[in-house]
Amino acid sequence: MRVLVVEDEVRLAQTIRRGLELEGFVVQLAHTGADGLWAATEDSFDVIVLDIMLPELSGYEVLRRLRARDVATPVLMLTAKDGDYEQADALDLGADDYLTKPFSFVVLIARLRALVRRRAPQQPVLLSSGDLALDPARRTVRRGEAVLTLTPREFGLLEFLLRHKGFALTKSEILRNVWDAHYDGPENVVEVYVGYLRKKIDVPFGRTSIETLRGVGYRLVDPAGTGEGQVQDESGSAPG
After folding, report:
1. Distance CA 38, CA 100 (A)
2. For residue 106, with 0-12 CB atoms within 10 Å meaning exposed, 13-18 middle and 19 or more buried, which class applies?
């Protein structure tokens, strides 16, 4: 789940970012209204956290321009202002929710997930491939009756693969959606985490859920469409 946080208080923005990332969100930060508007119109996000009191453009103006450009991404307004008129103004301009500082991080997480569910009710409650099932709301993964324990990054990677089951995904696409839109580290971190994931979801069960596509990236196999083959190593070759 990709979140844009537009907040000019750098320390607070970093705190929100760290907390969201621990919950498996991919977070991009902007510290001015102009930067937030540019990011929200040039990139794709599942939800936007938008402060009202921002330099260059206020959160109200950012929201007004987003809706004028038919950007329908859910927006949660985050502000130190606490008053009925401020809340009404935000909602009238097209905000989907409103949270006043200081806020409970548990409530922030719950509201963000609620906004995403409200926007995409067509998405299945469970993501699955064969007997592999991931529950985004409960943050659980099962292979048949076995409960699997994944790190937040492994969970995010598996969720992204399952949401695009059967499609070839490049390393850059995976980095952009599971790591960060501005990640500038080595691409082989994807190989490392695919390896971690295979050791947990496939190897103990004799399965091959994640295919290596040479020169392209990876694809999560849909057993109903392509079947599951032998266990393969990171190079894509079946063990001899």
Report:
1. 24
2. exposed
CB atoms within 10 A of CB 84: 7
The ranges assigned to domains in the chain are: 2-119, 127-226
Q: Which CATH number fits domain 127-226: 2.30.30.60, 3.40.50.10490, 3.40.50.1980, 1.10.10.10?
A: 1.10.10.10
pTM of the model: 0.63
- Cβ atoms of residues 50 and 36 within 8 Å: yes
Mean pLDDT of 205-231: 78
Q: Tens of pLDDT along 50-74?
A: 999 899 999 999 999 998 888 889 9
Q: Give yes or no for a contact between 128 and 143, defined as CB atoms under 8 angstroms apart.
A: no
- What are the two backbone dihedrals, phi and then psi, of residue 178, each rounded to the nearest 5 degrees? -110, -30
Percent of the chain past pLDDT 90, that is, above it, reads: 45
Q: Higher-confidence residue: 157 or 177?
A: 157
Both tokens assigned to 181:
């839109």
